[in-house]
UniProtKB/TrEMBL annotation:
Compartments where located: Cytoplasm
Domain of life: Bacteria
Keyword Transferase on entry: no
Any one Gene Ontology molecular-function term assigned to this protein's record: metal ion binding
Name recorded for this polypeptide: 3-dehydroquinate synthase
Recorded GO CC terms: cytoplasm
Species this chain originates from: Luteibaculum oceani
SUPFAM superfamilies cross-referenced by the UniProt entry: Dehydroquinate synthase-like (SSF56796)
Domain 3-dehydroquinate synthase C-terminal, first and last residues per copy: 168-307
Catalyses which reaction(s): 7-phospho-2-dehydro-3-deoxy-D-arabino-heptonate = 3-dehydroquinate + phosphate
Length: 335
């Protein structure tokens, strides 16, 4: 069990799902917001609590103010009150939406996450960022409120699609790049077993990524300083994601390559380490070719990024693997 300095309690497990879900959902004041695909795959796990479940639309389209209103109306029809507890069971979209609703309805009620995708387990569910998209811009409306509990069970990864698993690996590799050359080597050394979803290796990988992110967030819960290093690959990544309409991790992978090319000039990241990172991304099937990108269109999207301060935006650039640097770069100096 981990604790983010009283921000959230985090558990990482490989115990049978049915036992854990029943324990977490049995409280009479709990309502579960469950991704519709998860509900189909694991219908048997929810058979005794269907009257306390709201199905959440799968996909990024659920992160809108219009859809938020629909879910809030359903919650009010279930007669929730300030003593209620919401539990998100799903990927990053379900966690983002649940956290946003819980931190605003009745001016805030308790909530917890049971993330079911690799991306959500190692990244999206941890850190207190909750929000929805607006007019094509990601996460521009939201709150910073940490869940009481984040319960991670790697057994959910057994039914994850190859695309979803690959997408999540971009965040895992990001953690290694910004924090630990040793973890980077662990991923290289165990790549085959990770792709085969060896449970012991997966448990260790998820645990290490969770610890890395939790430590960074605990030191800077409101993202005013060092926590910004978690945005490595994400400035261009978010722009690429909405411009090309590709999975988040695939876009982050391409964003990492752009950031590394900037780092070669700005922080002297070596070509050798750039190649090591590119090869690890490729090893897990993530894209690294930038030839399809329209950089003028991407620059326009970045100019609307919520992290921009006047004409500059902070980029996370590596000096070497495991050693990130926050550097403000003028928009006119971007490729």
């Amino acid at each position: 069990m981990l604790s983010m300095y009283n921000l959230s309690e985090i558990t990482v497990s490989k115990a049978p799902l049915v036992t854990e879900l029943n324990d977490l959902l049995k409280d009479k004041n709990t309502v579960a917001l469950v991704d519709e695909n998860v509900a189909k795959i694991y219908a048997g796990l929810f058979k005794d609590v269907w009257n306390k479940i709201i199905l959440i639309r799968a996909g990024e389209g659920a992160k809108s103010l219009v859809y938020t209103e629909i879910v809030i109306q359903q919650l009010l029809e279930l007669n929730i009150d300030r003593s209620s507890n919401l539990i998100a069971v799903g990927g990053g979209v379900t966690c983002d939406l649940t956290g946003f609703i819980a931190s605003t309805i009745f001016r805030g009620i308790n909530f917890s996450f049971i993330p079911t995708t690799l991306l959500a387990q190692v990244d999206a569910a941890i850190g207190g960022k909750n929000g929805v998209n607006f007019n094509g811009y990601k996460n521009v409306i939201g709150t910073l409120q940490h869940p009481d509990l984040i319960h991670i069970n790697i057994n959910f990864l057994n039914t994850l699609s190859d695309i979803e698993f690959t997408s999540g690996m971009a965040e895992v590799i990001k953690h290694a790049c910004i924090h630990s050359f040793g973890y980077f080597e662990f991923l290289k050394r165990n790549a085959a077993e990770i792709k085969e979803k060896n449970p012991e290796i997966l448990l260790e990988m998820v645990r290490q990524s969770v610890e890395i992110k939790a430590q960074i967030v605990a030191k800077d819960p409101k993202e005013i300083g060092g926590r910004k290093i978690l945005n490595y690959g994400h400035t261009y990544g978010h722009a690429i994601e909405t411009h090309l309409n590709i999975p988040h991790g695939f876009a982050v992978s391409m964003g990492i390559i752009v950031a590394n090319e900037l780092a070669e000039k700005q922080t002297a990241l070596s070509e050798k380490e750039q190649l090591e990172i590119k090869n690890l991304l490729r090893q897990f099937g993530l894209p690294t070719d930038l030839s399809s990108l329209e950089f003028n269109a991407l620059k326009n999207k970045i100019s609307k990024d919520k992290k921009r301060i006047q004409s500059k935006i902070d980029f996370i650039l590596l000096e070497e693997i495991g050693s990130p640097k926050i550097k403000a770069i003028d928009l006119c100096d971007l490729p």
